[in-house]
Design a protein that fits this description.
The complex is a heterodimer. By secondary structure, chain A is an alpha+beta fold. Chain A folds into 3 domains: about 120 residues, Acyl-CoA dehydrogenase/oxidase, N-terminal domain (Butyryl-Coa Dehydrogenase, subunit A, domain 1); about 110 residues, Butyryl-CoA Dehydrogenase, subunit A, domain 2, CATH 2.40.110.10; about 150 residues, Butyryl-CoA Dehydrogenase, subunit A, domain 3, CATH 1.20.140.10. Chain A is built from 10 helices and 10 strands. Chain B is α/β, with parallel strands linked by helices. A 9-stranded mixed β-sheet of chain B has the order 9-8-7-10-6-1-4-5-11, with helices on both faces. In chain B, helix 2 links the parallel strand 4 and strand 5. In chain B, helix 2 packs across helix 5 and helix 3 packs across helix 4. The longest helix of chain B is centred in the N-terminal third of the chain and has 14 residues. The N and C termini of chain B lie far apart (about 50 Å). The chains are: A alpha+beta, B alpha/beta. At the A-B interface, helix 1 and helix 2 of A face helix 2 and helix 5 of B.
């Protein structure tokens, strides 16, 4: 495995892991219990460049490659799934589309504070009646003089409770013969921009997932990203990269569950020996290790393709599908190894088990991914 | 003006060798005892200006340790590498490092880790200072530059000693004295952008092969075996008070607690 990584990647992993072990892991259980977004840690992460991993230097970013990006998301998620989620959504589906589709002026305005982590980004696509089917979007932006008048009800917005810069997917000037989806950037604080209640979620509880609503909110016309009608293209581009981040997040959670499983299996004694000596447990550990390693290879392969400028959509979709489902199995087995204690809040595996579940749902459910993959495999 | 600081670092082996020692980039990393030393050097530079140079002796696999130092913010990296250096003991290592350091004169300060994680001798710092003939203080807990002298504190058993040292001087830094900084991602990205590590071989150092490597090493490790520690679990008998008394007695008899 390590042979496909360069020395730079190893140092990236070493340094991020050492930060996470010291700053995130000790509070991961607590921020989950309290459903608290740890600003004090996020600030430090911002100073180290975790919020502008692939952004160019001139905008203050670290300009690292996609493999480094996957490693960083994996390592943060290994400590806290919620913070891994915050970082991957911010980097891949909020900042990245601005960098790819934004004008020079837009990049100069929004990217630097996002890159420093002083402002947090969000991607607002899902609505009560639109998710997997983006064409069902009901949010609208109607031009009026120098602004769009925006009305939208966006739900399940990751980072929603803390986001300052939100990419809104909406229909611009909809009419009987026009039905174009576009992306307009909304900044928190604009009159008519309302952050709804935080969702009371099963996992990822330290991430302030909320609804965001806009009521006759006037957003300048120059907040349009790309051109009118570019929404789907922007969404798909963002999600191609986003998938890799979610896959890396699932991998990080699975890795943590594997490590916890091994640790417990070595300590816990039944029938006079550590349970790791029992073949039933060994079979589980073997499966867990294999799933984790296979996920990692698929993710790095997709990332390496992206880094070499090749097409990677299919590979990143497969990596996301596989890693999220593997994460479900690995965390489930980690709970099983722990027996009753695995079902208790005294051990971290129940958190991994809860956090794992949503990786099969968001940024494209497993079913949508299978649909996309089948199309690729069958050749349309 | 600023301070010219040289830090001697080592790339150590992560896992204990089973049979033959094989050093690759996968299995080595910057000696953990060197990280607080780099932190000390970088803080001095931030306070007083100047520059930090790192120098390391070792095979090509040591390059990663130098890159890591560069990601932390050092200004110049030098790798002393030569086939003739293979098999160097601590004295031969100090001879090579000393020769390298002489090429860097004038400097104000040479810093070392207290020891290395993979061989644990703690000899290279003091021996190299002797080679250079400069004042040396070990286990430095704090240091302060006062225009033309260093004021340093060192821990010795339960005492804190304070020294005033003229430059150039050499110190080993107590591993708990400075919390090494986290490496920013930009720093890591930049550190790997271009190859800039300078390489010196024996000829560059002006050393004869017989002074280093196997030939120049008066000591030799004959064998290395893993020590197996056996743990014995013993249950104390009696009621809680008796058990507690017995435990206290044993702890105090073994010297683990008490005066």
């Amino acid at each position: 495995m390590d042979s496909i990584l360069s020395e730079k990647h190893r140092i990236v992993r070493r340094s991020v892991r050492s930060f996470c072990e010291r700053e995130i892991r000790p509070i991961a259980g607590e921020i989950d219990r309290e459903a608290r977004f740890p600003w004090e840690v996020v600030e430090k992460m911002g100073k180290l460049g975790y919020f502008g991993i692939q952004a160019p230097r001139e905008l203050g970013g670290a300009d690292l490659d996609s493999i480094s990006y996957a490693i960083i998301v994996e390592e943060i998620s290994r400590a806290s799934g919620s913070l891994g989620l915050c970082v991957t959504v911010h980097n891949s589906v909020a900042l990245y589309p601005i960098l790819v589709f934004g004008s020079q002026a837009q990049k100069e305005k929004w990217a630097p504070p996002l890159v420093r982590g002083e402002k947090i980004g969000a991607f607002c696509l899902t609505e009560p009646n639109a998710g997997s089917d983006a064409s069902g979007i009901e949010a609208t932006a109607v031009s009026d003089g120098d602004a769009y008048v925006v009305n939208a009800n966006k739900v399940f917005v990751t980072n929603g409770g803390v986001a300052d810069i939100c990419l809104l997917f909406l229909k611009t000037n909809p009419s009987a013969d026009r039905n174009e989806i576009s992306v307009v950037v909304a900044e928190r604080g604009t009159p008519g921009f309302v952050v709804g209640d935080l969702e009371d979620l099963c996992g990822m509880r330290a991430n302030p997932v909320s609804s965001i609503r806009l009521y006759d909110c006037r957003l300048p016309l120059h907040n349009l990203l790309g051109c009118e009608g570019a929404g789907l293209k922007i969404g798909l581009t963002a999600l191609d990269t986003g998938r890799m981040g979610i896959a890396a997040q699932a991998l990080g959670i699975a890795q943590a569950a594997l490590e916890e499983g091994i640790l417990y299996a070595r300590q816990r004694r039944q029938f006079g020996v550590p349970i790791s000596k029992h073949q039933a447990i060994q079979m589980m550990i073997a499966d867990m290790g294999t799933l984790v390693e296979a996920s990692r290879l698929m993710i790095y392969r997709a990332a390496a393709l992206k880094d070499s400028g090749k097409r990677f959509s299919q590979e990143s979709a497969m990596a996301k599908l596989f890693a999220s489902e593997a994460c479900g199995k690995v965390t489930d087995l980690a709970v099983q190894i722990h027996g009753g204690y695995g079902y208790s809040k005294s051990y971290p595996v129940e958190r991994y088990y809860r956090d794992a579940r949503v990786t099969r749902i968001y940024e494209g459910s497993s079913e949508v991914h299978r649909m996309v993959i089948a199309r690729g495999v069958l050749g349309k | 003006m600023g301070l010219d600081i040289v830090v001697c670092i080592k790339s150590v082996i992560l896992t204990a060798p089973e049979e033959q020692m094989l050093r690759t980039e996968d299995t080595s990393e910057l000696n953990p005892f060197d990280r607080p030393v780099l932190e000390a050097a970088l803080r001095l530079k931030e306070l007083h200006g100047g520059r930090v140079t790192v120098i390391s002796m070792g095979p090509e696999a040591s390059l990663s340790a130098l890159s890591e130092a560069r990601a932390m913010g050092v200004d110049r990296e030098i790798l002393i590498s030569d086939p003739a250096l293979v098999g160097s003991d601590t004295l031969a290592t100090s001879t090579a490092l000393g020769a390298g350091l002489r090429k860097l004169v004038p400097f104000d300060l040479v810093l070392f880790g207290v020891r290395t994680a993979d061989s644990d001798t703690g000899q290279v710092g003091p021996q190299t200072s002797v080679q250079l003939g400069i004042p040396f203080i070990s286990m430095v807990k704090s240091l302060e530059w006062q225009k033309d002298v260093f004021r340093v504190e060192r821990v010795a058993d339960h005492f804190l000693e304070e020294y005033e040292v003229a430059t150039p001087a050499a110190f080993t830094i107590h591993p708990g004295a400075f919390q090494p900084r986290d490496m920013g991602l930009s720093g890591i990205g930049r550190a790997f952008e271009s190859e800039r590590v300078e390489r010196w071989n024996l000829a560059d150092l002006g050393l004869m092969p017989e002074r280093v490597g196997d030939a120049g090493s008066p000591t030799r490790v004959l064998s290395m075996k893993r020590i197996k520690e056996t743990k014995k679990c013993e249950f104390l008998k009696g009621n809680a008070r008796e058990q507690a008394d017995e435990l206290m007695k044993r702890l105090s008899d073994s010297g683990a607690i008490g005066a």
